[in-house]
Amino acid sequence: MATCYFLQPSEPNKPALKNVMGKAKLHVFFLLFLILSSFCESNDQLTQANSLSPGDMLISEGRAFALGFFSPTNSSKSLYLGIWYNNIPERTIVWIANRDSPISNHSSVKLTITNSSEMVLFDSEGRSVWMTANTTTTGGADGAVAVLLDSGNFVLRLLNGTVVWQSIDHLTDTILPNTRILVSSKAQVVGRLVAWKGPDDPSSGDFSLGIDPSSNFQLFIWNGSLPYKRLDVVNEVLVFGGTYQSTTTSVMSQYLYDRGDELYYTYTYTYTVSDGSPYTRVLLDYRGNMSLWNWNNTTLSWTVVTAMSSYCAIYASCGPFGYCDYTEAIPICRCPDGFKLVDSLNLSRGCQRKKALRCGKDNYFMTMPNMKVPDKFLQIRNTSFDQCTDECSRNCSCMAYTYANLSSAGGPMGNTSRCLVWTGDLVDMEKVSVLTENLYIRLGESSVQKNGELLKILLPIIACCCY
Fold first, then answer.
1. Which of 186, 219, 253, 337 has the fewest CB atoms within 10 Å, measured from its CB?
2. From CA 291, how far away is CA 271, in angstroms rounded?
3. pTM, full prediction
4. What's the sign of the alpha-carbon dihedral 458, 463, 466, 467?
C-alpha cells in the first residue's frame, strides 16, 4: 500500500507557524525540509491483513510500476483495477483486472486476499466482480501475499513461496520486455493478448494475438476467429534492427521457448549504445495494429519504433503468389519474376504463372532474397541445405522452400537447422529489409530471364511424386 504523509500546519496553527518563521530562520529551513521531503511509505505488497481501495496504490520496489484504481477518462464513471508506469507523466495502462466488469459506484470498493488465498475485487455492494483463478491452493491455509514486481508482473504467492497466480498469464493489450508469455499448452487453456475495444474503452475488443494452432512457429493477430495479420516465422531467434531517436541503435530479439508440453514467447530490447534504456512495450491497439513503443525522456512521450500498420500487413492482402514490397517508400503488392497479376484492378486476387509447371521437366528455383516467408508450410528439422533443396526439387507438388542454419544462433529449442517447404499457393509473402530469408520458388523452364537482382538455380527433377 502506498500511503503518503505530508507535514502541513492545521488551520488553527497557521499563526503559530508564522511566528516560528519570523523568530528563527533555522526553524524555517527545518519546516521546509520536512514539507519538501515529506515521506511516502511505498508498499509493493497486498496481504490478508489489509485491502486496496480507490485512492490507494501498490508501488513496485524500484518504483517502476504502480497498481491501483483508475478511470479511462475524467468523464468516465467506470472504475478499473490496473497497472501503469509509475515514473512517467503520461499514465499508460499495461494490465487491467476487471476490463469486462467495470465498477460504476466507487464507494466501498476493495481488493482483498481471502482466507482461501484467492485475490478478489469487490464492488460497493460486496459482490465479486473479479477474482484470481489460482493454479493451486496447496499450503494456502497459512495465507498468501500479492506482490507488484518491477517487471510489471503482479504475483500472488503462498507464504511458502509457491506462485498460484500472476498477471502475465492473463494479459490485456500489452507485452512488457523480458516477460515470458505462455502461448501454447497441452495442460491448460491459453489466453491471448486482447486489444481494447476503443481508445477509451478497455473492454475486450475484436483483435487478439495468439499462436497459430496448426504450427508453433508463428503468431497471428486475429479478428475474431479469422487471421488478420501474421507475424514472421520464428527462426528460434529473430533479431529486429531499429533506431531510438536518431543516434542510438537498438536491437529487439524474439524467442519461442519449447518446454515440452508448453511454449513460451518473450522479447528483449537491448541498446548497443548505453544511454539509460527507456521503457519499452509491445502494444496491440483497438484497430488491430501491433507496434513497439519507446518512452522518449526528452519529449516526454511515447515513440513508435516499428509497427504493422500498412495495408500490405493485412493477411493475404496481395493474394496467392503475390508479395508486399516493404522496401518501397509506400508498400505495394508485386508479383515475383515469372508471374503476372491476375487482375490489375484487384490486387487481392494475386498472381499467376506466366508458364505452367510440367512435372518431369527441368524447373528453375528462383531465389527471392529478403523475404518474410509464406504461410501454410511443412517443416523438416535438422537437415542440410542440400537435403532441403533435394526434398523440394524431387517432388512436383513442392512450390517453394527456405532454409535456415540455426547452429550458431543458440536457439532455445535445440534445432540445428530449419527447412520449410510449401506444397500449395504461396500466401502472405513480404519483401522486407530485416528478418530476411531467401525463398526459393519453383518456376517453369525459361519463365524468367537472368538478371542481377534475382538468382536462378537449375535443379533436375529427380522424381515426380507428391507429399
1. 186
2. 18
3. 0.78
4. negative
